[in-house]
Amino acid sequence: MNSRIGRTCAVLICFSFLSTLALASAYNARPKLVVVIIIDQFRGDYLQRYYDDFGPSGFRLLMDHGADFTNCNYDYANTRTAPGHAALLTGAYSDANGIFSNEWWDSQKNREVTSVEDDSTQLVGAAGTGASPHYLLASTLGDQLKLATQGKARVFGLALKDRAAILPAGWAANGAYWIDDHSGTWITSSYYRRDLPAWVQQFNRSQADKFWNREWKDSSGNVQFTTARKPGAGFFDVVGSTPFANDYELDFARALIANEKLGTGPATDLLTIGLSANDLLGHEVGPDSPKMRAMALALDQQLAGFFDFLGKQLGLANVWIALSADHGVAPLPTVAKAMRIPAAGLSNAQLQKQLNADLTARLSPGHPRDFVPDLSYPIAFVSQAAFTAVRLKEAAAEQAVGEALERIGLRGFYTKDQLARGEVPANALGLQYLHSYSPYGGWYVLGVPPPFTIGSTRGTDHGSPYSYDTHVPLAFFGVPFQPGTYHQHAEPVDLAPTLASLLGLNPPSSAVGHVLTQAIAHRHIEEPGGGTP
């Protein structure tokens, strides 16, 4: 018998026994550790597309021996990295957790700000302004875990990207780690601590250069990736879009678990891992490239190794694993058009120029103004100063920008003023945009792009309300989950309420997701006389 299959069978036998024991509870460290894996830009169809090529102990550990929800979709339109990571662990969409984009325009600072930058903090391990979850308007699963156990539980987040490490971990996390883009060393923020722990410093000294000047070969021996150093290019640009980046993150996760002694305390601990490499490559080559297949198969082996580590470190019967993604991605426009599907790759910069020219001609002839100082297709950020100069208030200004968006080819629009008042059509699309509202971002307009149209002339993108962006995996593995494939409707916001319920916690403060009861194994409770009720 294959040794991996043998270990899996042993685990399942153990699960069968444990399911008759005391109800799991975060208060008594059952399970010892919950690991939530969020793969950046991993479409829901990838698991089925590559199923036959996966080994038995990576993705298929969750698919074959866990609860796998194949019809999981985000119910909002702003399918970006920060909103997705926030939604998964708050159990809520942007209208409740506040995170509606990776960045947004700050009219007071007159520049774009990120979803996690925090002027009151400093980076630790690098120079610069720090980051924190201060923009979050809702608690996360980790926050609820910390509250319920009065701080005994330990909560950490890690990813290559700061937003992917910080937002899932929440306000009360013990730590969040991400990399310095240029050097690849792991850093954090003074929000969490003043100095890097000794073990992180040691990891940086011994591992930061490990994956430079390497070749990654696919299963046929063909070189798919190389990480040769390039002038001016940093770790994030070169190594970040290869499977080596996932090796690097999972190695760091192993070091974190071992050095912070996760899973050995009096309460359940939580670790969120945002695997960022898939997104960096996917933007460049699209979802149908052989390189994306090679990335998925490499990640399958990497996850198998990580799950094996968890088994040896804590015993898989003591660990719950949840897996999902922050968003999907559109096919390359050239690929879609080759199949006679209307598609387009548009220049974001050119669209912004068109919008400002159109609005200037209508509202300020002869006096050019930046009415739209920032465009992140299909979101247009609106200049309060420019519209005040032509005596238009928010509602009228956003309406004018929305109409200009339609004139350059978008299907429709929703203004911030409209969304704040809940005035959307009573249909599925209206609800998606209502869920995309946030009080942040000054004045803005959410445009409705045509399907298969992206705001980039290179590669591909995401950020639409369409299924290729909203459909993501959702799978659970652990003692309480009934193995099976579930085709019922599910949403990523169901992840946090489901885990909270099983851990005996209150759900996150603004959670709208549902407990996925269909995937929870029935617990047999013996009566004092030996029978069952």
Q: Would you identify the CATH architecture of the largest domain?
A: 3-Layer(aba) Sandwich
Going by CATH, what is the homologous superfamily of the largest domain?
Answer: Alkaline Phosphatase, subunit A
Computed structural class: alpha/beta
How many domains?
A: 2
The side-by-side strand order for the widest beta sheet comes to 6-5-9-8-7-12-1-13-20-2-21
Q: Which spans of ≥5 residues are poorly predicted at pLDDT below 50?
A: 1-22, 524-533
How many helix segments? 20
Give the tally of β-strands.
21
Q: Averaging pLDDT over every residue, what do you get?
A: 93
Largest sheet: 11 strands, mixed
Radius of gyration: 23 Å
Beta-strand residue fraction: 15-25%
Cα(first) to Cα(last) distance is 39 Å
Gross morphology is globular
Q: Can you characterise this structure?
A:
The chain has 533 residues and is an alpha/beta fold. The protein has an 11-stranded mixed β-sheet with strand order 6-5-9-8-7-12-1-13-20-2-21, sandwiched between helices. A 4-stranded antiparallel β-sheet has the order 15-16-18-17. The protein has a two-stranded antiparallel sheet with strand order 3-4. A hairpin with a 4-residue loop joins strand 3 (103-106) and strand 4. The longest helix is centred in the middle third of the chain and has 25 residues, at 290-314. The radius of gyration is 23 Å and the shape is globular. The two termini are 39 Å apart. 54% of the residues are buried.
